[in-house]
Amino acid sequence: MGEEIWGKIEKSNLSIQSLCSIRSLIINPSTSNHIISAIFETLTQYFHQQQEQTLENQNQNHYLKLLCDIAINHHEFTRIIFYRVRSFAFSRSVNSQFRVESLSVLLTIAEHDENLVSAIAEFDENVIIELCFDSSVSVRYWVFKNLFRFRIRDEILGRVLLGFVNDPYPYVRRISLDGLVRLSKSVVEFKNAGLIAEVYDRAVDLFVDRNDCVRAAAICVVCEWGQMLPDSSMEAGEQDWLDSVFVQLCSMVRDMSMEVRNEAFVSLGKMKFVSEDILLQTLSKKVLGNLKERKFPGKSNTKILDLPASNAAGAFIHGLEDEFYEVRRSACYSLGMLTDFSVRFANDALNLLMDMLNDHSMVVRLQTLETMHHMATCDRLKVQEAHMHMFLGTLVDTSTLIRRAARKVLCLLKLPFMKIFKSSINGLLTNLETYPEDEADIFSVLFYMGRNHGNFAVSFVTELSQEIEPSCEGELRFDNPRVAAVLVLAISAPLAHERLGCSIPAKVFSCAIPFLGRIAFSLRNCATRDTLLAYLLKFNKITHVPGMESSVEDDLFPVAGGTLQLHNIDEIFNQVLPLQQICNGASEDLFRNDLRDLRQTTFPLSHQRQVIFTDEEAEKNVNLILRTVAATWQLIKSGFTDEVQKTLRSCSKDLATVAVNSNRLTGLLAFASQYVQVVQHLAEIWVHFLPLSKLHYRKIGMLDHLLEKLDYDLGKLRYEFSGLSKKEELPILELVLLACVLRLSEMEICCNVYTLKRVQSNISDIELLCEDLHIELSEFAGELRKSLSEQGYLDDGALSQQFLFKRILDLFSLKEMVFDGMLKHIKAELGVPGNDSENPIPFVSGLPAGVTVQMTLFNVSDKDRLWLEMSAQEGGLSQYAFLSSNQIGSYDEINKVKLSVPFYNTPKAASFVLRACVVKEYPSEDVYRPARGSGGPKGNSPLSAI
């Protein structure tokens, strides 16, 4: 089959139409080495023939990409292709555009072969520097973007980057400034004080550049390089110079551009040290008396003192009142970082932060609470009674993330008065009454608060001890939140000091024992159930084992989730000692290590089983979960990736607990779980599109892998569920469109014709849906359609179009999925009857073997093309058998099919494991998973597997 395809391609003389076919041969693992060698020789011969013509052919980048694909997918060709392309890159007969494309291919190959990384370092730095001075803007931009991937001396690198901060093209100026920021972090010590001063002064000059992105990048340079100036280079003292840099940054917080203002506040938070009087000035719009006449040097190489301290006046007030939430968030963050330098500044800043807890943006409120958490960790958070009402209001916020962040702060607070302690406990009880699902976290917070405020906790428990008395029938009402608070605080109070345990009535500890499992679940990070039981028994005054002569049943003590033999109590008492190490100052990490070998808690069955809902309740709960998923989008764009992943994992767990009595909503539950997984992939991918300062953990090649997973899961959303309405299908199509734009915005040198055609096709589908629904295109889809129609969607100006697609990405917004109908999940169950390890199916090595399979197909229609895929080894070549309508029979909701299929690829072995699955074929324009063998579907998704 491969020979026939290659024969047709050779006759077409490598036309643009045949490029996709060539690439399919390259990436297909079944293609023989003979054909790969022929493709390699043909492409190499083409380049040699074109060298005298300076390689002006417009398809040259596609051919380079094909060579790159061969090197990545066929390792025996990797090194020879690497050095062959290197000869193109360093040839004087090629133009600079082709040289840059060749270098890009070399870098891509080196990413997949660590042995070639050293070869990249051996490149002649003069060739790379020469490209920096090329007349082509796209060439200069690419070189500066990848400059640090080559080995160039730091001194030369600094001079080159400095020389291009005044480039006529703004994006080149910006990338040069970004390079200077990166250079400052990669070099431990600069010995050239003159270069540092020159870089700083040049960046200050760019504060008045007319392009927003250049001014924002210049701010980063001033922040990083301004703090590197040695003492010998300035007449003022070191502290005066750091204050000068700080005031210089403050001068940009009123810039007309949101991007510039945001970067200014981010940079303020990176300052190493600032004087207290300057910090206090940022919180007051009125110039303070001791700063009215004070001035700082505006530049390093000038003696003119022309930078007034008044530039810092009210800087953070302006930031916290900014109209854009991004700026307010950055101001909150930097405010917290600077509180480390001054207690007085921290106290004054707290008044402003309390007001930000009412901000309409959830992102700002979350950042404010994280700032308070940082201040509490550094012992800079001194709350007063006037603050508590505003702070405790966050405990009943509609956002789960906000409530959780507020409780994290509450764990660290040191409350000065009993009145404030009571109001805090009451705030947690209100949180528990309003959001019962927060119980475990609330109990944990109560535990830490009781440990940190032992005397207050004892007083609170003593006052409310009467409320936990059992009813006249002997039943203990533990669902009362105040009772829960009493029991948890009673457990934690003796940890502050053991004598406090004697001040609490023993009946309180007695009442906590029957509900040990529920409490232990909340305190699972602190102790096991057995340790807590021994702890409670100790303060319950149980000092001997009653009834040793009684039967075994009499020696069992009932606890939640099971029983405990009382003759082991003495042994369990010995486990209390590690728990009480907390009150002696032992770290929680050490405490957890001590408990590592203890038997883990057995939780009550009520925490493990699923809850059965009616169809209406299940549909409502799923829609609420999907609303939470949509609300994470702003957090994804803002870089709160860890918080988003926690929320999405929680949503997945919530979906797993929903069960229904009928099959009507099983499709909806499966769809929702798949949708949550898609958003999780988006959160992981979006990190790669954040500013470089946030990509310190980015792994090479990870983005391509994540994009492939996203495409695959989107394909399952589109083609493994039926019954989607047009309104429900629209946001899925926009997600597919987003996946395409993500690929295009991060491209280097590749054949993008296929991806661009998919974009055009999806835009057409979205337009038709919008016409039927009588709605307008979203801003994201509309701007993309407009840009492609203006640029020409088959235009291959990859380097220039990268800016276009990245700008369009910012317009995307994740829409809330709301379902009001019934979805059907297209799936299959597969089995081979009469086959097990003791009685396997007999076969003759090398000859076909008959395999009888039993399939149960769910919600399959006559429009679905199904195949049976079989392979003798994981990842090997597959054999496909098409399931015709005659074999399937009727198309019901549940259809059982039994048929015999010959397996031809029996290996030469006494036995082997046969892997089989039912797959559904995708349309040719959406191939998310290429077939691993010949004669099968163009793209597919497994519906079942054995």
Question: What can you see in these coordinates?
Answer:
With 946 residues, the chain is of the alpha+beta class. Helix 5 runs antiparallel to helix 6, helix 10 runs antiparallel to helix 11 and helix 20 runs parallel beside helix 22. Strands 12-11-14-15 form a 4-stranded antiparallel β-sheet. The chain has a 3-stranded antiparallel β-sheet with strand order 9-10-13, with no helix packed on it. The relative contact order is 0.04. It is 53% helix and 7% strand. A hairpin with a 7-residue loop joins strand 11 and strand 12. The chain is globular. About 9% of the residues have low confidence. It has 42 helices and 15 strands. The longest helix is centred in the last third of the chain and has 21 residues. It has 5 domains: 123 residues; 123 residues, no CATH class; 109 residues, no CATH class; 202 residues; 120 residues, Immunoglobulin-like.
List keywords for this structure.
single chain, 946 residues, alpha+beta, four-stranded antiparallel sheet, three-stranded antiparallel sheet, 42 helices, 15 strands, 53% helix
Topology:
Blueprint: H1 2-11, H2 19-27, H3 33-50, H4 60-73, H5 78-89, H6 96-112, H7 117-121, H8 125-132, H9 137-145, H10 154-163, H11 170-186, H12 193-205, H13 212-226, H14 238-250, H15 258-268, H16 276-281, E1 295-296, E2 307-308, H17 315-320, H18 325-338, H19 343-356, H20 362-377, H21 385-392, H22 400-412, H23 418-434, H24 439-452, H25 454-464, H26 481-496, H27 506-512, H28 516-522, H29 529-539, E3 556-559, E4 562-565, H30 569-573, H31 576-580, H32 588-594, E5 611-613, H33 615-631, H34 633-638, H35 641-656, E6 658-660, H36 666-686, H37 702-719, E7 721-722, H38 726-745, H39 753-773, H40 779-791, H41 798-809, E8 824-825, E9 827-831, E10 849-858, E11 866-871, E12 879-883, H42 885-888, E13 894-903, E14 915-921, E15 940-942
Parallel strand pairs: 5-6
Antiparallel strand pairs: 1-2, 3-4, 7-8, 9-10, 10-13, 11-12, 11-14, 14-15
Helix pairs in contact: 2-4, 3-4, 4-5, 4-6, 5-6, 9-11, 10-11, 11-13, 12-13, 13-14, 13-15, 15-18, 18-19, 18-20, 19-20, 20-22, 21-23, 22-24, 24-25, 24-26, 24-28, 25-26, 26-27, 33-35, 33-36, 35-36, 36-37, 37-38, 38-39, 38-41, 40-41
